[in-house]
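Much of our argument rests on the idea that a fold can be written as discrete symbols. Part of our work consisted of pairing the sequence of a single chain with a tokenised description of its backbone. No coordinates are needed to read the tokens, only the vocabulary itself. The record that follows shows the chain in one-letter code together with its fold in token form.
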Amino acid sequence: MTSLQSRHIDNVYSITTGAALLADPAASLVHKSWARCVRDHGLDPSKPSPARILPAQEVRAHQQQLEHFLRAARAGMEDIYRRVADLGYMVLLTDAEGITVDYIGNPAWDDQLRKAGLYLGADWNEAHAGTCGVGTCLIERQPMTCHQTEHFDATHIALTCTTAPLFDHSGKLTAILDVSALRSPEAKESQHLVRHLVSMYARMIEDADFLRNFRGHWILRLGSAFGLVDVAGEVMLAFDDGGTLAGANGGARQAFAGRALSGAVSELLHMPMDAIWRIGNGGASALMPFAHTVLLPGGGEYHASLLAPRVRRAPTAPTAPATAAPNARPSDRLPSLERIAGDDPAMRKLLAQARRLVDRGIHVLVEGETGSGKEVLARALHGASSRAAMPFVAVNCAAIPDSLIESELFGYTPGSFTGGRAKGMKGLIAQADRGTLFLDEIGDMPMALQTRLLRVLSEGEVLPLGAESPQRVDLAVVAATHRDLSALVAAGRFARTCTTACAARC
């Protein structure tokens, strides 16, 4: 034991002995946690314990409990890691029990990270690990930084850990997002920017999960920044075609604190439903689609936009004319190939090629930079096909952890593995039967799964995990990537046959 660890143990003893920290409103979160560790958890600061790592089978059971939430969380984790990796940080996600279910770190530091507990399967519950970013955040339910000697266990005093709680669409505490470093400057103020990033990404992950869960509903977004509300809505309300509230994101729960988030959205906002539909129609000027403001009953003026349902059956009856009445509900039609081309000659040429592929039974590969509209093209192809009334199922292959992508895509039968749903789960491929399956970021699909995907593409069959016989599926597949697949094939990181199976390129 080092002299620093000895001094830390003495400090913990001096603060927690005899002081009524748990009842002291002026006590810091850290010192209150130290008191809990001694009095409630029975931990002894003089007996540091190594990191506790759960076996792989138990970790998988914890991962399965989060299921779809991990998809949004992984995308956020990867984005924040790209911003902090060069500064020596790693990113991990734990469930509501403090068990690490996903992490991203420098592979060169694997041994150090595992020893420190910054690793898959690590148990950071306060009852076991003492005061720490994850465990204490689970109790306090607010963003926080546990910096170096603020940790209870002397084993962890070299670490700095900044965390934020993640709540699901129903407001239930679901996970903890953590950005940690093995070493950092001594001053806690050095972590202010990291704390801001963690809080921001926690909200983004929550909102992504909210949008996924209510993708079949109308979403009213309210934001303080004009022109950014469509991508950065702070307050989001989900409602059905009749205007009945179905859900609210964290920002809405905070904005409407103390009010029941149920009933009609028009009553909640004290504005007629016609005015809400006009937000989606763009009002009097189609060039100013976000020129709408909503004044919340409790105060505060927000700019507004209305997002149409993303998963719904296209109408089979003739559609209404484009020049709908001002008070009409916005059209829920899929984007047409003609409308997305605009006046761009290159896009018109591309769409002329795409139009020839509709209903030809040919799988399509769309290549282009991130943000270039690959999914918009995929949805337009679906909408122009005879499958338009059937499901359009979008899968981001890069956003699903490797440990879950197989069960997410192919599904599983009851009892296939510990932690799975008792009735099994229908995979995303089967959910797209008779419709269109959109595989975004196909270049990030693990090599092992590419072989299984080939059977789906070539044979029209899917074999769920644990099943003895395959199921027939009839679907059109549109794959997309921003990567150079030819280079990946040459490097042995992507199957040539998988590229060939998506025969037509756009």
Summary: Residues 22 and 36 are 7 Å apart (CA to CA).
